[in-house]
C-alpha cells in the first residue's frame, strides 16, 4: 500500500500527464520537421529545382531550403516565448501544433518545378519558414510544461520527456520513408514522397486532442497569480541575461550533429557512395532506436552526480566518435557503418536528454520560456540548419569527407567549453536550486513575509481601533475635539 499523501499522488499524476503530453506533442512536431530533412536529402533537389542543375548543386539548394526553417526558428522563439511568458505555456503549444500541421500538409500538396517553375521552390521555402516558426515556439514550451510540473528536484528528469520526442519523431520520419524506399524511383518522385507529409494531418488531430486537455504549469500559474509577468520578456532576457543566452546557444551545437548523421550522411551515402535508399535508412533507424533508449540516461546521470563531471562524460567521447562515424560509413559495409553510427549516437543523445533541463534552470520563471527559446533557436539559426549546408559545401569543395569529420568534432569542443561555463554561473549541484531558481524562491519568500507582516499590522490597527472605541477617556477626548 502506498504511503504517499493524496497531495503527493496528485502531483505525481499531474507530472506524468504533463510529461506524456509533452512527449507526444513534440514527437508529432519533430516528425513534421524531420521528414523535410529526409525529403530534402532524397528528392527535393530533383522535384523543386531545374533538372538542368547537377545533382550536387540541386542537393545543396535543397539543403538551403532546409536551412530556411532554422532561420525562422528564432522568430518563433521570440513570438511564442513572449506569449508563453505572458499568457501561459499551454495555449502557445496548441497554436504551434496547428501551424506545423498546416505547413507540413501544404508541402505534401505542392506542385513541382516542372508544373509551376520558380513558384515551386518559393512556396516550399514559405512553408518551411512556417514550420520553423512553429517548432521555434514549440520546443521551449514543451520542455517547460514537463519540467515545471515535475515533482520537486526532478525537473531535469521530466524535461527528458520533451526531448524524447526528437528521436521518436525522427524515427517515425525515417521509417515512413523506409517503407516507401522500395517504390520504383519514378513513382517515388511523382507521389511517394508526399505520403508522409499528408499523413501528418492525422497525427496533428491526435496531438490537438491531447494538448487541449493539458493543464498549465504550476510555475506559470504562480507567476500569473502574483502578477509577475514581464511586459516584454525577450527584452528582459537580452538586457539582463544575454550572457546566459550566448552560453546556452554555445552549449547546444552537439545537439545539432544529428544533421550530420541523418541529413548530410543520407545524401552522401546514397548519392556518392552507392548505398541503396532503404539500406542507409535502415542504418539511421537502428541508430535512432539506440538514441531513444539511451537518451534518458543523460538526464538521470546529470541528476545524480556533479553536473560538470556528468557533462564531460557525455561530450568528450564525441570528439572522437563522430569523426570515426564518417570513416565507418565510407567502408560501405552495412555492419561497420551501423556500429559506427550507433557509437557516435550514444554520447550526443545523452547530452540532448540532459541539456534542456540544464537550460531551463538558468532563467527565472517569468522569462524562462523566452530565455530558453532564445538560446536554443540562436544555436539553430547559426548551426542547426547550416550543418548539412556546411557539410555538403566541404564535400563539394574538397571531394573528401575528412573536413566534415573535423567540423563534427569542433561542434563537440564548442559545446564542452560553453556547457562548463554555463554551469559555473547556474550551479552544478543537481540536488540544489540553481541561481535563478534560488532567486525566485527568495523573492517568493520575501513576498510571503511582507504579506504576513501586513496582516499582523492590519490586525494590530483593528485591535487598537476596537480598544479606542470602548475606552471612555478616548471617547470623551474625541467629543471635545472641535469640528
Automatic annotation (TrEMBL):
Compartments, record wording: Cell membrane
Chief localisation class: membrane
Transmembrane segments: 55-80, 92-113, 119-146, 167-185, 191-212, 241-260, 280-303, 310-329, 335-360, 372-395, 401-423
Protein origin, superkingdom: Bacteria
UniProt-listed PROSITE patterns: MFS (PS50850)
Residue ranges annotated for the Major facilitator superfamily (MFS) profile domain, each copy included: 18-427
Gene3D superfamilies recorded: MFS general substrate transporter like domains
Bilayer topology: Multi-pass membrane protein
Keywords attached to this entry: Cell membrane, Membrane, Transmembrane, Transmembrane helix, Transport
UniProt KW Acyltransferase keyword: no
PANTHER family listed in its UniProt record: INNER MEMBRANE METABOLITE TRANSPORT PROTEIN YHJE (PTHR43045:SF2), SHIKIMATE TRANSPORTER (PTHR43045)
This protein's name: MFS transporter
Amino acid at each position: 500500500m502506498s504511503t504517499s499523501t493524496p497531495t503527493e499522488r496528485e502531483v505525481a499524476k499531474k507530472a506524468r500527464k504533463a510529461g506524456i503530453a509533452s512527449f507526444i506533442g513534440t514527437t508529432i512536431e519533430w516528425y513534421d520537421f524531420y521528414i523535410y530533412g529526409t525529403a530534402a536529402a532524397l528528392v527535393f533537389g530533383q522535384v523543386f529545382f531545374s533538372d538542368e542543375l547537377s545533382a550536387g548543386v540541386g542537393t545543396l539548394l535543397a539543403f538551403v531550403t532546409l536551412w530556411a526553417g532554422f532561420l525562422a526558428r528564432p522568430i518563433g522563439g521570440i513570438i511564442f516565448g513572449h506569449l508563453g511568458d505572458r499568457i501561459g505555456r499551454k495555449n502557445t503549444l496548441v497554436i504551434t501544433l496547428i501551424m506545423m500541421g498546416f505547413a507540413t500538409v501544404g508541402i505534401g500538396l505542392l506542385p513541382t518545378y516542372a508544373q509551376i517553375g520558380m513558384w515551386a521552390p518559393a512556396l516550399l521555402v514559405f512553408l518551411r519558414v512556417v514550420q520553423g516558426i512553429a517548432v521555434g515556439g514549440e520546443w521551449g514550451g514543451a520542455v517547460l510544461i514537463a519540467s515545471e510540473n515535475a515533482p520537486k528536484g526532478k525537473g531535469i528528469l521530466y524535461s527528458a520527456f520533451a526531448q524524447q520526442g526528437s528521436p521518436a519523431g525522427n524515427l517515425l520520419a525515417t521509417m515512413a520513408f523506409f517503407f516507401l524506399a522500395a517504390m520504383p524511383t519514378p513513382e517515388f518522385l511523382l507521389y511517394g514522397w508526399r505520403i508522409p507529409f499528408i499523413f501528418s494531418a492525422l497525427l496533428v488531430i491526435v496531438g490537438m486532442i491531447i494538448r487541449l486537455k493539458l493543464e498549465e504549469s504550476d510555475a506559470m500559474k504562480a507567476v500569473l497569480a502574483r502578477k509577475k509577468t514581464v511586459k516584454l520578456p525577450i527584452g528582459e532576457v537580452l538586457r539582463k541575461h544575454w550572457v546566459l543566452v550566448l552560453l546556452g546557444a554555445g552549449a547546444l551545437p552537439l545537439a545539432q550533429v544529428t544533421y550530420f548523421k541523418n541529413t548530410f550522411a543520407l545524401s552522401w551515402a546514397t548519392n556518392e557512395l552507392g548505398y541503396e535508399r532503404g539500406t542507409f535508412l535502415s542504418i539511421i533507424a537502428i541508430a535512432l532506436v539506440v538514441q531513444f533508449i539511451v537518451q534518458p540516461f543523460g538526464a538521470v546521470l546529470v541528476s545524480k552526480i556533479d553536473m560538470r563531471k556528468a557533462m564531460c562524460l557525455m561530450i568528450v567521447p564525441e570528439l572522437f566518435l563522430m569523426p570515426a562515424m564518417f570513416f565507418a560509413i565510407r567502408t560501405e559495409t552495412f555492419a561497420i557503418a551501423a556500429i559506427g553510427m550507433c557509437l557516435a549516437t550514444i554520447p550526443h543523445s545523452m547530452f540532448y536528454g540532459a541539456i534542456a533541463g540544464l537550460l531551463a534552470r538558468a532563467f527565472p520563471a517569468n522569462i524562462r520560456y523566452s530565455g530558453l527559446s532564445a538560446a536554443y533557436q540562436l544555436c539553430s539559426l547559426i548551426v542547426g540548419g547550416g550543418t548539412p549546408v556546411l557539410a555538403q559545401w566541404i564535400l563539394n569543395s574538397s571531394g573528401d569527407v575528412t573536413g566534415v569529420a573535423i567540423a563534427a568534432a569542433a561542434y563537440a569542443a564548442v559545446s564542452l567549453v560553453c556547457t562548463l561555463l554555463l554551469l559555473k554561473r547556474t550551479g552544478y549541484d543537481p540536488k540544489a536550486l540553481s541561481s535563478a531558481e534560488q532567486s525566485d524562491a527568495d523573492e517568493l519568500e520575501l513576498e510571503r513575509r511582507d504579506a504576513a507582516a501586513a496582516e499582523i499590522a492590519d490586525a494590530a490597527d483593528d485591535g487598537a481601533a476596537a480598544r479606542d472605541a470602548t475606552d471612555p477617556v478616548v471617547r470623551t477626548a474625541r467629543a471635545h475635539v472641535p469640528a
